[in-house]
Design goal:
Blueprint lengths: L51 H25 L9 H14 L6 H39 L6
Helix pairs in contact: 1-3
Keywords: Coiled coil
Protein name: PE family protein
């Protein structure tokens, strides 16, 4: 097994299993990982418990900023033709197609980005919940062992 691949052939990572998975699949324990980090079913992002709150906060803050940009763009970007001639009508139509109209506009891209941020926040919430459950399970297990704290 090559160093840094955690048993995954073809990985070009340099040490910490930097293979990524889509949001929402993170948080499953990975038997290939000997550091105790949470993996997404063997192919997720390594996330240490101490960084989850900061990551979630960063993604949530970005999502809030994008929400504001979407709100502003929704009302302020659409343009009507500046003069009622064919050239300004065409220019306004082209501008609106690129900025706010559906199917690939800048506003659609902002909405898609916001959706990805929301998925990341949800995935981090799930990871946090899993860490809390594992900590509770570990506390109960330690407390039940002879000489363990109750």
């Amino acid at each position: 097994m090559a160093p840094g691949t955690h048993g995954h052939a073809g990985s070009s990572s340099s040490g910490h299993g930097q293979h990524h998975d889509q949001a929402g699949k993170h948080g499953q324990a990975d038997s290939h990982d000997d550091r105790g980090n949470v993996h997404g079913g063997g192919s997720g992002l390594d996330v240490s418990p101490d960084v989850v709150p900061a990551l979630r906060s960063s993604f949530f803050d970005a999502m809030t900023k994008i929400d504001r940009q979407i709100e502003l763009a929704g009302g302020d970007l659409r343009q009507s033709s500046w003069a009622q001639d064919p050239i300004s009508q065409d220019a306004a139509e082209i501008f609106n197609n690129h900025s706010v109209n559906p199917d690939g506009s800048a506003l659609d891209m902002l909405r898609a980005y916001r959706s990805e941020l929301e998925a990341a926040v949800s995935a981090l919430d799930a990871i946090s919940n899993q860490y809390e459950a594992m900590e509770q399970d570990n506390s109960v297990t330690v407390g039940q062992q002879p000489g363990g704290e109750a």
